[in-house]
Amino acid sequence: MSESDHDNPGGRGPEDFEELQRILREMLQGGGGANGLDAEQFAKAAGIPVDPKTLQGLFSTLQGAMQHPSDEIDWSTARRTAIEVASAGAPAGDPAPAMRAFPVASLWLDEATELGATPDAPRTLTRIEWVQQSVDTWISLAEPVAESITRALVEALQSQMPDELNGALQGATPMLRSVGGALFAVQLGTIVGRISGEVVSAGDIGIPLLSGPGREGGALLPSGVAAFAEGLDQDAEAVTLYLAVRELAHARLFRHTKWLRLHLLTAITDYARGIRIDTDRIEEMAREIDPQHPEQIQELISNGALIPPKTDAQEAAHARLETMLALIEGWVDVVTAEAAKRIPGADAIAEMVRRRRATGGPAEHAFSALAGLELRPRRLRDAAAVWRLVAERSDAATRDGLWAHPDLLPTAEELDHPARLLERLGLAGAAPDAEADEFDTALAQLLDGELPPHEGGEDGRGRTA
Q1: 283 part of a folded domain
Q2: What does the alpha-carbon distance between residue 380 and residue 354 come to, in Å, rounded to a whole number?
Q3: Domain boundary at 292, 326, 342, which?
Q4: Which residue in 138, 164, 286, 361 has the most C-beta neighbors within 10 A?
Q5: Inter-residue contact 379 to 278 (CB < 8 Å)
Q6: What is the phi/psi pair of residue 426, to 5°?
């Protein structure tokens, strides 16, 4: 580069910028001969379905991002892609079983919890309706990470670009950021569309995805319920009724505990904003990827390779989130078990729900890698045991009353040592030390599977110890 070029770095910028545009345009059009990008291979790299309609939409989106760059990610792409993926799934299913189950589930829950029914009526949703009503929540969870990834990709490209193209890159940065954001939006939409084929209810993921007038009463997806029932040796109507009880319990908790949804989602997004992308790893990836196998890009992204290990602060924030998720799911488990005890095979259905919840589906794992956050209630059994204990030592009103304020909820330390929670609530009895030791022993046996996990245990008197 000449001295005049250094004095005026933009001197060659327009020509170089046009060259970058030409290269990107040829790539996005799949042209350019040997330098062109095969549409199917690009789709594999992006982690999206390889079909003509989807590919056409992808390339149209990326071309638009290139021609009209913006610092903001166009999330309408995620919404559109999610609906397209969801529409290619299973048929909607028969809503009649769920609609028959809702009134019965509500009556049984009235006996099991002090938290009353929601004003919004429960309903059924198709996969597309679930996407339409939940995708904005997914976007809010993924947006902080999307911004970090697109920023890191541009920074990595800047560090790798030859000096003679630096001027062009400065002019092309908004375009590159826009294209990267569009690709992330397409990936997120694809994941949400796939998740719609795995969920059975509005509260299935564990967080309240739906909000707004008429949407807070709980919902089942008949297609997801039918798919879940296929894997069980249980009557389909019984499975539907159990899932209806569980969904309405989840809806009652979030409707009654008005602070809970915002508290939980704020904690998740705050955690996500703390994620920093590993730019060194991006540079390594650029050297390692074989141009003949662009699907390697998606493999690295889907494995979470861009997201470095958590910092100490993030580990602490993640632990708090897991405790909150476990308290929510544990309470729902306990209340559902009490309300659904009349259902034949309820324990078997409950165990399948817990296993499914603990492992997650492929799409949920993909979101975890994309956003760097697992929504797993790892201490679910601990939390359920504590909620059950409080009700046994006192009553359902005391148990449910702990949701009145976040400071009243059991802490992680109290999940480790439930006797301390009993002492705080004044439920430890006249000899707290001896009683605490006895309880801790019984709880350890319960969690190890040596005692029956629900009421109606071996002694037949509704006692677990």
Answers
A1: yes
A2: 9
A3: 292
A4: 138
A5: no
A6: 70, 30
pLDDT tier, 241 (very low <50, low <70, confident <90, very high otherwise): very high
Count of CA atoms in the C-beta half-sphere (13 A) of 196: 31
Helices marked H in 196-311: 222-230, 236-256, 260-273, 279-288, 295-302
Rounded to the nearest 5°, which phi and psi values hold at 219? -155, 145
pLDDT band of residue 306 (cuts 50, 70, 90) is low
Q: For the chain, what's the residue count? A: 465
- 435-464 per-position pLDDT tens digit: 445 555 566 555 555 555 444 444 433 334
Residue 35 inside a domain? The answer is: yes
Tell me how far apart the terminal alpha carbons of the chain are, to the nearest angstrom.
Answer: 81
Residues 2-44 have pLDDT tens digits of 444 444 333 434 454 455 445 444 544 444 444 444 445 544 5
50 found inside a domain: yes
What's the domain range around 413?
392-465
The count of structural domains within the chain is 2
The residue among 238, 261, 292 that closes a domain is: 292
Q: How far is CA 188 from CA 32, 129, 360, 367, in A?
A: 29, 17, 17, 7
> If you search the block for the tokens 């949407």, which residue do you land on?
215
Instruction: Tell me which long-range contacts 253-258 makes (C-beta under 8 A, separation of at least 24).
Output: 253/115, 253/328, 253/331, 253/332, 253/403, 254/203, 254/208, 254/216, 255/115, 255/118, 255/119, 255/120, 255/216, 255/217, 256/115, 256/116, 256/403, 257/403, 257/404
Residue 408 DSSP class: G
Would the pTM of this model clear 0.70, i.e. be above it?
yes
